[in-house]
From TrEMBL:
Protein name: Ribosomal protein S18-alanine N-acetyltransferase
Keywords tagged on the record: Acyltransferase, Ribonucleoprotein, Ribosomal protein, Transferase
Residue ranges of every copy of the N-acetyltransferase domain listed in the record: 2-146
Pfam families the record matches: Acetyltransf_1
CC per GO annotation: ribosome
Length: 149
């Protein structure tokens, strides 16, 4: 049975495991330590198995999506979409009225997901992400909450 639940410092190793095998641009241990301690991190569980993670922070009524990653073996089954929707509903309880995010220009899968959920593109942040020897632009996106699913 699937469930969404808050993650804490005790989940560090599982977060690193999923991200390192599933995200071509992993956060790394220090970012996970800080985020699990300071932010709102939610996990998607099937039974005892953690399959996906998303992390958010809140400034006034702006929610920022900091990270979302679905384990490679569980992609394309609606997990990312449902985790993001539930995560943003969760953040509304704390006063979130809008969600902001940045995504790599080349990340068409994530951009499709966000567009499908009603996120609009607000602009470009040039050379924001490291990429090999150079940098890649970020696309800035936002949506009002609740999402119009
Ligand atoms: C982006 C990510 C979270 C999507 O998770 P997912 O569980 O595979 O996505 P879902 O199955 O919920 O699909 C939701 C939508 O995403 C898009 N999508 C999913 N897989 C796709 C693919 N292979 N090609 C194109 N679009 C795709 C589609 O719009 C899809 O909706 P649809 O099924 O109605 O067409 C996942 O690919 C991931 O973890 N990527 C690596 C980490 C990452 O890039 N995170 C985003 C950082 S900004």
């Amino acid at each position: 049975m699937s469930r969404v639940a808050m993650l804490g410092m005790g989940h560090l190793e599982q977060c690193l495991l999923i991200e390192n095998r599933s995200d071509p641009h992993p956060w790394g241990k220090m970012n996970w330590l800080r985020s699990l301690r300071d932010d709102h991190c939610l996990g998607w569980w099937e039974g005892d198995e953690l399959l996906a993670i998303s992390c958010y922070t809140l400034v006034l009524d702006d929610v920022s999506l900091l990270n979302i990653v679905v384990d490679k073996s569980s992609r394309g089954q609606g997990v990312g979409r449902r985790l993001l929707c539930e995560g943003l509903e969760w953040m509304q309880q704390f006063g979130g009225a809008r969600c902001l995010l940045e995504v790599r220009l080349s990340n068409t899968v994530a951009r499709n997901l966000y567009t499908q959920l009603g996120f609009a593109e607000d602009g470009i942040r040039k050379n924001y992400y490291p990429l090999g020897d150079g940098f890649e632009n970020a696309v800035l996106m936002s949506a009002d909450l609740p999402l119009a699913e």
